[in-house]
Amino acid sequence: MLRxxxxxxxxxxxxxxxxxxxxxxxxxxxxxxxxxxxxxxLIFVEESGAVTRYSFExxxxxxxxxxxxxxxxxxxxxxxxxxxxxxxxxxAIAHIGAFKAGMVSVPLFTLFGDEALEFRLNTSGAKVLxxxxxxxxxxxxxxxxxxxxxxxxxxxxxxGDAATLSFDETLARASDRFTAMDTGPDDPGIIIFxxxxxxxxxxxxxxxxxxxxxxxCIEFVHQYMPQPGDxxxxxxxxxxxxxxxxxxxxxxxxxxxxxAYRAKKFDPDAAMALMADHQVRNVFLPPTALKLLRQAxxxxxxxxxxxxxxxxxxxxxxxxxxxxxxxxxxxx
Length: 332
Known about the structure:
Blueprint: H1 8-14, H2 25-29, E1 40-45, E2 51-55, H3 56-72, E3 80-84, H4 89-100, E4 104-107, H5 114-124, E5 128-131, H6 133-142, E6 151-154, E7 165-166, H7 167-173, E8 188-193, E9 203-207, H8 209-221, E10 232-233, H9 241-254, E11 258-261, H10 268-277, E12 282-284, H11 287-295, E13 308-310, H12 318-328
Parallel strand pairs: 1-11, 3-4, 3-5, 5-6, 6-7, 10-12, 12-13
Antiparallel strand pairs: 1-2, 8-9
Helix pairs in contact: 3-4, 3-7, 5-6, 8-9
């Protein structure tokens, strides 16, 4: 969307919003780059160090399978699909599959307690929930208070109990061919709940154009992303709008692979090693993470080769900015 310019004024002067008449986030984030070139889309690193790679062809097929599963469950366009997962391939698959089916995804933080989870599921009217065993344990305590919820999918080898569905097994049985819904940019795509600072959290319903609205920022801050070799990572939860729309979805839209790392908490040394070992080129680090890096007095590891860094959400401060430049080698 951005056209390279020699000055910021020229960049602004020549900028134009380019919103197509028909647009589906799911298609744009998977099928658009599934051209047979085996282009990397997701790299999943587990705490054990095990790595699983997914191409855009893989992502396209898996999201088609989930879209078929949702349709087979009797859901209709605009029905709500809640995603209660940490950073994981299944998180991306669930959201993108819902988008393709014309349904509305509802991201939920894994740290939510029973009351917060129940409120968001009931307020959104979610009919489907995708979670893991940890999330399923929370769900069990409030299951009787969720009248709209009809289907629960659990990822991994153990699906919890006989009343739930195995995400992996159900996907394996579904067809990998699906004709995505012909959505417009203003058709509903995702509900992001506010933090509830002045009362109950509010569910903000966004159309598919919300992804396009984030692109100028991502392209600008990351110096005209995509560039050869770009690989994007953030420790931010993929249930937060920052993790989803500042990293996951814009990167996939632009054809840039995303590194997913499931960690119980942010570890400064592990974060530095992760970025160096996997040659991360672009990173979104909230100020809280940057402060933890400084508190740990992390050293720049051999092999760290960042190209760009985005931060936001609170004031950075000059000293923290200087630390980032010295230890990470990029401007914040």
